[in-house]
Amino acid sequence: MPMHDGHRVRAGWAPFLQDGRRVVLRYAIDKTSSPHGESMTDALGTILSCDDTAVRVMTRRGQVRVPRALVIAAKEVPPPPVRRRAPAAP
User: Would you say the pTM of this structure is higher than 0.85?
Assistant: First the structure.
């Protein structure tokens, strides 16, 4: 399924964008409404759903819907590291 980006077609773009995969997505945001004037941000989490129009990702802060046309880069990432317990107090 080719992904369209304006007039450019990205054949086979990000085939790993599938439900249940852990990913990080870099995507464009509105620079004027961002708190510090950023033009891009990231979503790190597990894909809930993905279609030709958007990717829904469950992050630690909640669910994020990212329009596919705004995705700049995507990468599959490994599971989060296991948190270690603090050493017992003496």
Answer: no
